[in-house]
Amino acid sequence: MRFDTPAATNPIDQLKTIGQPLDRVDGPFKATGTAPYAYERHDAAPNAAHGYLVVSTIAKGRITALDVSAAEAAHGVRAVVTAERAGKLAKGDHNTAKLLGGPEIDHYHQAIALVVADTFEQARTAAGLVRVEYDREDGVYDLEEARASAVKPKKGDGMGGAADTATGDFDGAFAAAPVKIDYIYTTPDQAHAMMEPHASIAAWDGDSLTVWSANQMIEWGVSDLATTLGLPKEKVRLISPYIGGGFGGKLFLRADVVLAALGAKAAGRPVKVAIPRPMMFNNTTHRPATIQRIRIGAEEGGRITAIAHESWSGDQPDGGLETAVNQTRLLYAGAHRMTAMRLATLHLPEGNAMRAPGEAPGLMALEIAMDEMAEKLRMDPIAFRILNDTKVDPEHPERPFSQRQLAECLRLGGERFGWSRRHARPGDVRDGRWLVGMGVAAGFRNNLLMKSGARVRLDRTGTVTVETAMTDIGTGSYTIIAQTAAEMMGVPMDRVVVRLGDSSLPASCGSGGQWGANNATSGVYAACTKLREQVTQKLGFNSQEAQFTDGVVRAGNRSIPLGEAAGPDGMVAEDAIEYGDLAKKYQQSTFASHFVEVGVDAATGETRVRRMLAVCAAGRILNPKTARSQVIGAMTMGVGAALMEDLHVDKRHGYFVNHDLAGYEVPVHADVPHQEVIFLDEVDPISSPMKAKGVGELGLCGVGAAIANAIYNATGVRVRDYPITLDKYLDRLPPVG
Amino acid sequence: MKPFTYQRATSPAEAAAAAAATPGARFIAGGTNLLDLMKLEIEQPAHLIDVNTLGLDRIEPTADGGLKIGALVRNTDLAADERVRRDYGVLSRALVAGASGQLRNKATTAGNLLQRTRCPYFYDTAQACNKRHPGSGCAALQGISRQLAVIGVSDHCIATHPSDMAVALRALDATVETVKPDGSTRSIAMADFHRLPGDTPHIETGLESGELITAVTLPKPLGGTHAYHKVRDRASYAFALVSVAVVVQRDGSGRVAVGGVAHKPWRVEAAEAEMPRGAKAVNARLMAEARPTPANAFKVTLVERTLGAVLSEAKG
Amino acid sequence: MDSPLDTPSDPSASDASPSRRDVLIAGATTAIASAIPLGAGAAPAAPAPMAGQVPGAAAPVRAQVLLTVNGVIREMEVDTRTSLLDLLRESLHLTGTKKGCDHGQCGACTVIVDGRRINSCLTLAVMHEGAAVTTIEGLGTPDAMHPMQAAFVKHDGYQCGYCTPGQICSAVAVVAEIRAGVPSHVTPDLTAAPLMNGEEIRERMSGNICRCGAYSNILDAITEVAERRA
Questions:
Q1: Complex ipTM, two decimals?
Q2: Which of A136, A144, A553, B195 sits between 20 and 30 A of A228, alpha carbons compared?
Q3: Residue A31 and residue C145: Cβ atoms within 8 Å?
Q4: Rounded to 5 degrees, what angle do the CA atoms B139, B143, B147 make?
C-alpha cells in the first residue's frame, strides 16, 4: 500500500480497540517470568555451550601476542575464537568499529576472543587465562582538546540532512539584536544501560545459521550478520521475540551475536554469549558527548531575530555525528539563523544512537538557552516560547507542519502544573531544608517514516494471526498491533494472535527513532486492508459497503462469520506500507511541554525531583496506557540525564571508567516522583493511515533542560554542564545555618 | 572465577585454624562483596570457609550495659533491632542508608566491616592498583577521582572505605571481637581496626591471617541525639559522596565521624571539642589535613555543610 | 517423571509438590573424586583433604546441595562456583529470574529465600543447603497470577519486562517488610512502625532498577496490593 495522499476516514477511526487503554497482551508472560529472552532459549538450543568474551585492555594499538593455549587446555573448553582464527570478517553497514578486534585495536574492551566451554563458570575462568601483549599507541580521548581539529563530515548529518544550514544573515542580525545570549553547554557521554545485557544464542545447521539475539532491528541485524560472516542473507535467521530494553543500544549487530556464531561454528554445537555488564559500557555503543554553542538574539519585545546552534561531537574514524542542532532548525521562528555540526576523531568506544539521538542532548542545551533568554527579556519562559512559535519550517517556509500544537502543550501544561505559582525570581521559595523551583522546556522529536510489512492470516475459527518481523522492546508493539488487527478485522482482542521478532516473517520497520508504532501498525493496516478485500471478494460483497464487526462481515442484508468466510483452508494476505512524498511537502514532528518541580537541599545541594508533567501532541495515541508508559519512562531517563548519568572518560587510557551499574548511576525508584502525562487530542492524517506518530522519544526530549531550569529557579545558580551534580554548584549555594 | 574448594565451618576457633592452615582460604558469610570481586578475579580464593553455620547471629546485652552484635547478624536485622533503634539510632540510620534491601538481607556485620573499596581502578584489573596488585601503582591519583578519598591519603592510594555502618560504629567507639587460629581472642577498637593506606594499601585491617571476627560490641548507650546523613547523587542505592554520623548531647558536645572521605571511617576526637562552636570550627580541625584532588575538593566543603545541617537539625 | 529441563513455561517447573523429590545432576557428568562430601547436616569438622588444592588443570570442584525451589525439593551436584542465579537459570531452567548485572547492582535476580528477598547473583548455590527458594515462577502462572503479578499487568508496571520478575519478588517482600516493622532510610521515627506509603515503598524498591522507567506505575501496582491486603 502506497501512502501518498492524506488519510481519509478509515476503519481505524472507529476506535473500538485502537485508542483504548488496554493491558499489554504480553503482560502476563512478563509478570510471571515466562516470556523467553535471547539467552534463555533452552527450548530451542538445549545443548548450547557457553561463550565468554575476552576484551582489549588498551584503547588503541596492536596485539603483539595472543596466547590462548592455557585457555584451550582448561577444563571443559571446547573452542577459542580469535580474529586470526575467524579469518576474514566484513563489517556490517551499521557498524563503525569492528566487533572482533585484532591485531589492530580500535577501542577499550573491544572483543578480541571468545572462549567456549561446557559451562559458564568454565568459560569465564578459561577466558581469564588468555594472555595478551599489546603495542599501545597514543589516541585522542578528550573532546574539548579535539574540538579544534573537528571537521565538517562528508556524509552530512548522517540522516540525509546537511551538517550546516544557514538562512538570512545571522551575524548581522545577532550583532544588531538589542537582547542576546551566547553560551557554551556541554552534555556527557551516556550509556543505554538497558537491563538485559546484549545476548545471543547461535546454532548452525549445515551452512544455515539461526540466532536468537536481542535486537531491535531484525532487518539490519540479518543483513549485517550475513555481511559480516560472508553468508547469503537467506542463510541467516534472526529470532528476537522479547527484548529486555534497547534504547538504541540494540539497533545494531554487536559482539555477542557475531562471536556466538563463530563460536558455534568452531565448537560444532550451539553457543550462547551474553556481554558481561562490566564490559558493556566500553564494548558497545554510547551516546556521544557534545559541546554546544548557542547564540540567540531578540527584539526587546521578545521576538527572536537571530538564532545559531553549533555542536561538536566525536566518534571513531568513519563514525558519525551526534546531531544535536537538528531540532533548532525547526523549533522556533527567527529570520536569521544558522546551524553547524563538526565531528572530531576520538578513539573512545563507538558513539551511536541512543534514545532521541540529536534532540535529547540538543534540547538539553537549547531549552536552557531559551530559559536564559526569557529571563534576560524579563519574560515568562512559556510566553517567550509561544511568541516564537512557528507554523512552518523556518528554513523552508513553504513547508507547513502537518500538525503543531506546541503552544497548546505549553499553555495546558502551565495550567495543570500550577505554573502561575512559580516565583520568577530564583532562590525565592523555601520548604524546610529544600530550595524549591519550577522549570519548563519544550519537547520536540521528528516523526520518521519507514517501509513496514506484515502478513495477516484468518483461520476457520475466525482467529486473526498477524506476522511481522517487528520487535517489541517494551514499547507495546504486541498490543498495538493486536489492536490494529482487531479494529481492522472487527474481532475482539482475544481472537488476535501476534507473532513478532523473526526474520522469516515479513520485513518490518523495527524499533527505533520512535517510528515503530506508527509504521508497524500501518503495515498491519495495509495487510488487513488486503485481507478485507479478499474476504469481500470471496463472498461477493461490495467492498465499499462491507462492515467487519463482532467477528462477522456484513453487507446489505447478508452477514457471514469471519471463520466461515475464511473457509477450511483459511486466508492470508501480505502487504507493506510505503510512503510517497508527503514528508517532503509537510514537516512531520511531535511536540511536548515538560514541567518539573525540584527541591535542592540548601545545605548539601542534592537535587530531588518532586513533580513532573508532560503534555504531548503526537498524533493519534494508539493505546494511552502503553503510550503513557513510554512517556513516563522517557521522563525518568531525563531525570538521569539531568542529574547523574555521565560516563567518566579517563583521558589518559581512553575508556569509560565507571563501567558498571554501581558506577554509572541511573535513576532508581526513590529518584522518581509521581508523573503526570497528558496527550492532546490529535490525529495526523498526513503521517499514515493510522494518523499516529511516536511518543517514546518525545517523552525524553526537553526533560533534562526542564530540570536544569527548575534548579536555576530554586537556587539562582545556572549550570550549563550536564549532569547537574552538586559539586558543580555547591560553592554558590547560600551559607548553611 | 577460579575453582575453589568449599567447607562449612563448625566452630569459630576451628574456622580460624582451618583458614590459617589452608593456602588461599577465605571466610564467606553474606558473600555480597566477596563474590562480586571473585567474579572479576580481584579476589581469587582457593578455598572458602562458609561461616554462616556458626550461629553468631544474636544481639545480646553486655554486662556493662552495651550490646554484643554477633558477626553474622544481617544488616537488616541489626538496623531493625529495637535496642539499636532506641539507643544507637546512628547505627540503625547508617545501616538503612547503605546498599539495598536485598543486599542488607544478606550482608553481615563482620562482612560489612571487611568490604573493599569501590574505587573504579581497583575494580578494573587492567589498571594499576597498589591495593589489588602491590607495587603496580595507582591509576586513580591522576585519574577520575571525584568519588575518592580526600584525607589520610598517600601517594600509593586514594581509595575510600565504602561502608556506612562502619562510620556509625566508629562514632560509637565500638569494639571488634575476634578469634585467632590458635584459639585466643582479642578486642580491637574501631579506631584501630581499619588502616590508612600508607605504602601498603593492600593491608586494610589489623586482622592476622586466619583471624575471624566473632562479634562487634557497643559500649553502653551514649544518649543524646543521633543522626546519620548520607549525601549522594541519586536518592538511594548509591555509595556516599560523603556521610556524617553524629551524636549530639544537650550541651552541644558530641561526636562526629565521616564516611566517603578516607580509607577508614574518619574521626578526629580533638575536633569534637569544637562542636559547641559549630560545623565550621569542627570541620577546620576534622579536615585540616585534607589533600584532595581538583575533582574531589568539593568534599571538604560538603562535609562542613552537611555537618552544619545535621547539627542545626539536632538542635531542633 | 518430569524432566529437569522443563522449559519455564512448563507448569511442572513451578508445580508446588513438596512431596516430590527430583534428583538431578546438573552440568557436566564427570564425577570429581575430590568433591567435598557435604551431606545434609554432615558438614566436615575440618577442611576436607583437598581444601585449597584445586584439582589439576583447574577442574571444577563439585559439591552436593539440597534445596527446595518453588516447593520442589532439588538435590543437585554443582560446581562450587555456581551462583544461585545460574543454578536457577541454567540448571533448573527457571529463567524467570534474570541476570542483569551479575554483581548486585540492579536487582533483576531478586528471589525470596527463606522469606527474605536477596540478590541471587551474589550468593553461591552451595551456601543454600536446606533453603526454601521462591522465584517468580513460584508466585504464579499466566493463568493464575499472584495478586502482585496481576497488579503489575493492570498498572503497566513494566515495559521491556526484564527487570519485572525481580521487581515483583522484591515488591512482595517489601510489603511484608513494612508490615513486619523493618525500618528504612526514609522512616521518620526509628522507634515507631514504618508506614505503608509511597515514600517508604520507593525507598525500599530502590534496589531494583528499571531502565524503562516504569517506577511510577510499579508504585501504583504495589500500593494497590498493599492496601487491598491491609
A1: 0.98
A2: A136
A3: yes
A4: 105
